[in-house]
Amino acid sequence: MLSRSAVALALLVPILGACATTPPESKSMGLEPPVMSPPGDMSASERLAWWQHQLPRLSSEDRSEARLAMGELSLEIGNASEARIAFYEAKGGRLAAREMAQAERGIGLSYFLDGQVALGVPHLERSREDLQEPAQEEVEYLLAAAGGDFVEASSPVIEERMSVYLDAAHIKGPAVAAPSISTGAVNLDLTRSQWGAAPMRSNWDRMTTPYRIAVHHTAEPMTGTSVNASAAEVRNVQSTHMKDRGFADIGYHYMIDRAGRVIEGRAMTAQGAHASGSNNVGNIGICLLGNFSSQPDRGSSYATAQRPTSEQLVCLDKLLGQLREVHGIPANKVQGHRELKDTECPGDELARWISRYRMAN
Ligand SMILES: [Zn+2]
Questions:
Q1: What is the pLDDT of residues 89-138, one digit of tens each?
Q2: How many Å lie between the centroid of ligand 1 and the Cα of residue 346?
Q3: How far is 59 from 65, CA to CA, in rounded Å?
Q4: Is 12 a residue whose pLDDT tops 50?
């Protein structure tokens, strides 16, 4: 028999804002992974099939909770009618108040996805009391926007996540905040919308006060310097992080392309997923595009280490200066990824550059 507590754990987490149907990316506590959740390397549709397969083996109570998870996954995939069916089926079982609120919220969101705002609003209104953050703020944000009253969400992540529902419902959202606000007064050369970022998913943690910076390389050979080449590469990185690794978004806060452009990554209000577990806490992730270490086992195109371009290093120096000033981070809190864990990242040459940076600043 599957334990009820394991399923409860798997389903409690999404309500708290870190969806357990995708693996929590950055847990500082030694939380045991829930027994009852799909493997972390599955796509949303594979996870959905995984839950479908489990259903007959579950008790009726666990089945209701599994259907909540399936509803969330269907929303993520954009399948409004499947999501609505799953949430209604969940409601048909025995649910705690908080779970009932999640089902109502899900039904409401599914109607928004279908462009049926008037049908969605009553469900969202029924859900608002018993939801937890950040789901509650997301619902309040949608309800205000549906009523023509544009409130500012406390985080650009919430606005970005809800923009999917507002767009589908043809509700014009509030003016998008300037990138410099959401990214901590850093000059961006390529914003998320410019490189075609997918919206962030639900399993993110709030960023605590940034006090350190970690520098990475993508470990993928890259020679192109055009905006199009960089945008395509960053979309690849985001897709790998979200689809293959189950992250909420691209793991890094900033990237720097071969021409020395600063590229916007995940919002600074969300903790990064770039340095493993507790290493992500308060840690701003910057990634330079290119493969700066020799990895012959990955094939001939990876055998030779590239060097960071001089444009990349000039840009990194400037970006580090801006971020350190904005957040009051001392130079000795700038590290290469390899200083946090056993990895080649960010390659010998960039690691040496970082050591020299710390001494010079
Ligand atoms: Zn790294």
A1: 999 888 899 999 999 999 999 999 998 998 999 999 999 999 988 899 99
A2: 6
A3: 10
A4: no
pLDDT of 13 > 60? The answer is no
For residue 324, how far is its CA from the centre of ligand 1 (angstroms)?
A: 20
- Structure confidence by residue, pLDDT tens digits, 65-98: 899 999 999 999 899 999 999 999 999 888 899 9
The predicted-structure confidence for 254-289, as pLDDT tens digits, reads as follows: 999 999 999 999 998 899 999 988 999 999 999 999
Task: Output the pTM of the full model.
Answer: 0.57
User: Residue 106 — φ and ψ, nearest 5°?
Assistant: -60, -40
Q: Which domains, and CATH codes, for the chain?
A: 4-168 (1.25.40.10), 181-360 (3.40.80.10)
Strands (E), 244-311: 254-256, 262-264, 283-288
Tell me, in angstroms, the distance from the centre of ligand 1 to residue 215's CA: 7
Q: Where are the beta strands (DSSP E) in the chain?
A: 212-217, 254-256, 262-264, 283-288, 334-336
Give distance in angstroms: CA of 246 to centre of ligand 1.
Answer: 17
CB contact set of 26 (below 8 Å; sequence gap of 6+)? 205, 271, 272, 273, 277, 278, 280, 281
Q: Report the C-alpha gap between 124 and 103 in whole angstroms.
A: 10
Say if residues 102 and 15 touch (Cβ distance below 8 Å). Answer: yes
The first and second tokens of residue 105, run together, are: 């919220």
- How remote is the CA of residue 233 from the centroid of ligand 1, in Å? 16
